[in-house]
Write a structure and sequence with these properties.
The complex is a heterodimer.
Chain A (H helix, E strand, L loop, with lengths): L6 H9 L2 H6 L8 H11 L4 E3 L5 E3 L2 E3 L3 H4 L5 E3 L18 E3 L6 E5 L4 E5 L4 H8 L4 E2 L11 H6 L7 H4 L6 E7 L5 E4 L5 H7 L8 E8 L1 E2 L5 E8 L2 H11 L5 E6 L11 E8 L16 E2 L11 H14 L4 E6 L1 H5 L5 E2 L10 E9 L3 H15 L6 E6 L13 E9 L4 H15 L2 E2 L9 H7 L3 H11 L8 H7 L4
Parallel strand pairs in A: 3-5, 4-5, 16-18
Antiparallel strand pairs in A: 1-2, 6-7, 7-11, 8-12, 9-10, 9-11, 13-15, 13-17, 14-15, 14-20, 19-21, 19-22, 20-21
Helix pairs in contact in A: 12-13, 13-14
Chain B lengths: L1 E5 L4 H12 L3 E6 L2 H14 L7 E4 L8 H12 L4 E4 L7 H6 L1 H28 L3 E6 L12 H21 L4 E8 L19 H14 L3 E4 L2 H11 L2 H6 L3
Parallel strand pairs in B: 1-2, 1-4, 2-3, 4-5, 5-6, 6-7
Helix pairs in contact in B: 1-2, 1-7, 5-6
Classes of the chains: A alpha+beta, B alpha/beta.
Chain lengths: 482, 246
Amino acid sequence: MSLHASPGRVRRDASASPALAASAPSGTSDGSDAAAQSRAKRTAMPTLAGWGRLAVAGRETTTESFSADTRGAVLSRGLGRSYGDSSLPAAPDDKVVCSRLANRILAFDPETGAIHAEAGLSLAELNRIFIPRGFFSPVTPGTKFVTVGGMVASDVHGKNHHVAGCFGAHVTQLRLRLADDALITCSPTEHADLFYATIGGMGLTGHILDVQFKLTTIASPWVHMESQRVANIDEFLAALSEAAPRWPMTMGWIDCLSQGSALGRGILMAGRWAEADQAPRNPPSMPLEKRMPIELPNWALNTATASAFNSAYYWSHFAHKKTTLVGPEPFFYPLDAVTEWNKAYGPRGFTQYQCVIPRAAGARGVRDFMVLLTKLGGASPLCVIKDCGPQGLGMLSFPLEGTSIAVDMAISADLQRIIDHLNAFVIETGGRIYLTKDRFTRPDHFRAMEPRLDSFFHVRKRWDPHGRLRSAQSVRLFGDRP
Amino acid sequence: MKAVILGGTSGMGRAIAQQLAERGDAVFLLGLDEADLAASAGDLQARHPSHAPASYALCNLEKPEGFEAALDAADAALGGFDAVIVTAAMFATQEALERDVELTRRLVTVNYANTVVFCEHARKRLLARGGGKLVVFSSVAGDRGRKPVAIYGSSKAGLSVYLEALDHKFHEAGLHVLCVKPGFVKTAMTAGLKPPPFAGTPEGVAKSVLGAMDSGKPMIYAPSMWALVMLVIRKLPRAIMRKIGF
């Protein structure tokens, strides 16, 4: 089996227009995507991109008066950290508003941890302000550069999913601007259909203006972490389920380039907030901000370099098991240490494939997925595994009880084929993919994964009868008007 | 520090208010919209709960008759302020201003005449109590007559000259004047414009402003990159300025 991200292949992609190379593998579009991109490039039209760096023509309005500016808008976005096209406009003239400057904390009750914040408040800000005061977000994704509005729209999950569920499970009230510009408040008891369609609804039910949720208390700003090297995928799954009842936070890094008996080897990390008497008196120091200084060329990250990195990382974990006290930054956000690390993939851009394989498919299902992934050549230094708890109430929320696997993949001519194969496998197991990461899933595949789609459409129709709200992703996957 | 911020609910003013509050300085907000002021005051309170709640009063740069009352309210709430920060101003594109002479009149009145009047009230109060800090946002647009910002820039040029003169005249008496010249910063004010390569963020500018307030600088460019850009622009011969569109 050849590995497709070979340097030669990548160089050829780059010699074409990067924008064209980026969208060429997208078999789901009729090429209008590519045309729009190259048009944007030629005429220096403003573009918007997700974290995967595939740009489309469009512009966003970023103002403090976010709430007022959502009038007439068809999509709002936060920090643009979704990987694919969730936060991108379906057409260059679609009005897109950015919540980033709507960053006020409207109320906070230190007795209960209840917080009311504008949608653009970032998790980085929230952590900076509240960790020293002994509070932390009930759920955090793997980056702190997200807004609370985005955390609702993606219904993010974290290392504690097996005990805490998704972020939406901790949201008590939302204020939205609906497609007809009306303002509305919803909660689990008030307009509950709208509330649960908005939790994980990718911003397609209304513009999320402000969010009320509950912070959890932490006894210290230090995390007690145990990490262990794991030799293969079966051992990994056993270790994850063994750690779950003992640790409130677990996740694993997998060397997805290893094969044979070492297939799925990696490092399992488990942690809990340290008690005050176990932690140093001083708060952990914030790591210095490092920035990816340049965009690396496309060939820099290839199978050989990724494989070398993975081996080095795996073997650098000397002891079989070790216990340390670490700060929240290296524990929750290791990749945030390098600002704009997405430039490491070069101008071609990248995507992340994240799926969840139900518990019913067993260890066998996960192992077969890893075998397929290796066979297809999803070369990447980043592969993350996590066991998820039960499905939450968000109508389109990603997690369900099983094993979630996330793999970064550089854009290549083969990518669409790889993702189609993986999706076909995931459908077989009864699993699904995470919209926040997705750019390449075919609409028929998504429908096959998502029996809840019709009830989501039903609620959406009720609150946006004319289908005004849309994104590039909703046009691609939900059949919204193009 | 006990600071009054005119324009402290939005853009760079909001970021300055947040950073002052977080480090424990008392803040009083002046602005146009009561609900917006209340939301911002709540935000400052949440960021620094051990402090007395931030309060606010309405103040509109188009209505100079209200300046004294607004400063009275600030003085009463803070028990005598020792810093006044003005980030509020009007912005309009050159095309819009050329189309609408009334808009031009309003903009130059707010950005120059009324801002100077507000500063005069403020600096008199500060000098009467032995000095203090007066921080006013001008603009890089005031450094040189340029085609795309002919009218807006001239209003800021007048303001910059006034602030420089204030610094010369009252420095000895204890008035520390800081003229902030922001380049392009992504806020509501510049929402319709295409950001240049090194556009700043409100948080970044606020950080530099607090640094300059503490170290006693009379003038800063923010982001600092603009100091270099404007050095070149100021030196460009007139014949070249006529030709280029910058």
